[in-house]
């Protein structure tokens, strides 16, 4: 006999009633390949079991619950797990209910530009992050002509980190954060050409050689480090 395939468990929801700061929803759990009877468990965030229901047929299990606005969107995540005569099956993907309730514009965008002179050549590293906002949040590096150089969509609460080699010409760049509600941009910064600034100070530390300099570029103070 070949290896047994673990039945998949699916999760979905439907809004029944809308309140100012909450929703009444029905969440359905279904493992169509699991032999009945099937016991479905609905799990909330942080490993909390919200409800459990046994189904003697091959039909889905339905759970009617009230959800309210939480302080963080990850507190509005639900998943299903099914157990049948074959044993406990794999959990479903997480159902992110913040799409219904977590509606905040992006705010307080911070963008940090750092210049590095590594052995492979000069590079610029840019870190972008907002203090709050409804996920998913897309971060973009945008030029003054409006062109988008690159984009990232990190996990909630994590910054977007960009790194690239300097070119022979200077460029003006800004970080832009966008979700389904709003867009926010940082001030433009000038990324200088790919050359070491004058007056670099060489510091030897063990086997590491560090070159640090404060430049007068419009980037403000920049740290150059060569390993």
TrEMBL record:
PROSITE patterns: IG_LIKE
Matches recorded under Pfam families: Ig_C17orf99
Disulfide bond as UniProt keyword: no
Domain Ig-like: 3-96
Protein name: Protein IL-40 isoform X7
Bilayer-crossing regions: 199-219
This protein's UniProt keywords: Glycoprotein, Membrane, Signal, Transmembrane, Transmembrane helix
UniProt superkingdom: Eukaryota
Tagged with keyword Membrane: yes
Organism: Ursus maritimus (Polar bear)
């Amino acid at each position: 006999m070949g290896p047994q395939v673990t039945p998949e468990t699916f999760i979905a929801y439907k809004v029944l009633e809308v309140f100012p700061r909450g929703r009444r929803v029905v969440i359905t759990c279904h493992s169509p390949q699991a032999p009945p009877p099937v016991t479905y468990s609905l799990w909330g965030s942080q490993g909390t079991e919200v409800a459990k229901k046994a189904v003697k047929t091959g039909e889905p299990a339905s759970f009617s619950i009230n959800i309210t606005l939480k302080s963080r969107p990850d507190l509005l995540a639900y998943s299903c797990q099914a157990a049948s005569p074959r044993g406990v099956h794999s959990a479903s993907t997480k159902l992110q209910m913040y799409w219904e309730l977590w509606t905040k514009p992006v705010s307080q965008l911070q963008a940090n530009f750092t210049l590095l002179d590594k052995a492979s050549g000069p590079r610029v590293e840019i870190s972008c992050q907002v203090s709050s906002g409804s996920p998913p949040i897309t971060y973009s590096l945008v030029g003054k002509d409006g062109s988008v150089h690159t984009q990232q969509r990190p996990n909630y609460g994590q910054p977007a980190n960009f790194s690239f080699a300097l070119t022979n010409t200077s460029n003006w760049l800004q970080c832009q954060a966008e979700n389904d509600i709003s867009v926010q941009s940082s001030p433009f910064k000038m990324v200088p050409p790919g050359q070491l600034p004058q007056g670099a100070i060489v510091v030897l530390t063990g086997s590491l050689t560090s070159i640090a300099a404060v430049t007068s570029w419009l980037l403000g103070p920049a740290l150059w480090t060569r390993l």
